[in-house]
Amino acid sequence: MNPSTSPNPQVLLDVRGVTLQYKTQNHLVTATYRVDFQVCKSDRYILLGPSGCGKSTLLKAIGGFLTPAEGEIMLKGAAISKPGYDRMMVFQEFDQLLPWKTVKQNVMFPLLSSGKWKGRAAEDKAVCYLEKVGLMKFANHYPHMLSGGMKQRVAIARGMAMEPDVLLMDEPYAALDALTRRKMQDELLHLWDDTHFTVIFVTHSIPEAIKLGNRILLLSPHPGQVRAELEGRSRDSTDRDEAGRLEAKINDLLFAGENMNQEAQHA
Ligand SMILES: Nc1ncnc2c1ncn2[C@@H]1O[C@H](COP(=O)(O)OP(=O)(O)OP(=O)(O)O)[C@@H](O)[C@H]1O
């Protein structure tokens, strides 16, 4: 076997040459073009790029909601062809919970409907994860009785309780105020310290990417193509200079092409 094609045993998710398209009545929209990246177990993997570069579309395809027009996405060596409980999604919107179910019932719902856990075991699992996100006191509340941040915590508990192979988070904090967002980022890192779960996190915030990610994929503007992949900071780094340098590098990489385009237009 060619060594360049032999599988890396550390790789959990392998995205190979993935082009994603939407067919509308009059158009074919290419959202990403031949994107390659690999996510390893326990990665906090960030998809970062400007609005419209196809970050959410990539996450949808990993979720199994969209089939690549070109390329393939493999999870643990098997091609993804449909949604599955091995990939749980957390969205930006606050209305992703079932409004007629309590907080605890919301967390229990996928545990029961997947058949992964039953009865008391499902309840214990839900309680365990509600405790992790500090919401046990609100277990019997309904979603409309919670703040936006609390609803996001429930959605995170629901996703994590399933103990999926990979948690997919699509700008989960984008609609929160700055203080809550910062607190939720810290909480996510503390949760990660606890179980070292694998997460793919979409954001267009450079500071958020630097704070959360151990690896950062930079995508070019529409249609999204890989511009670079960077090592993030180590989990316990408090070196602000290092964060500053990484931010400058990301800015250079993300905006270099645009500056060149502008220069070409003005030449
Ligand atoms: N359902 C759809 N039908 C047609 N085009 C779509 C659809 N969803 C997204 N697109 C297009 O695909 C491209 C990528 O969209 P996507 O939402 O994945 O980008 P994004 O990087 O997540 O953007 P943002 O950061 O603004 O959320 C955009 O040009 C968008 O207009």
TrEMBL record:
InterPro entries: AAA+_ATPase (IPR003593), ABC_transporter-like_ATP-bd (IPR003439), ABC_transporter-like_CS (IPR017871), ABC_transporter_ATP-bind (IPR050166), P-loop_NTPase (IPR027417). Residues 15-246 form the ABC transporter domain. Keywords: ATP-binding, Cell membrane, Hydrolase, Membrane, Nucleotide-binding, Transport. It is an enzyme of class 3 (hydrolase). Transmembrane segments: none annotated. The keyword Membrane applies. Its EC number is 3.6.3.36. GO terms for molecular function: ATP binding; ATP hydrolysis activity. SMART domains: AAA. This is Taurine import ATP-binding protein TauB. The gene is tauB.
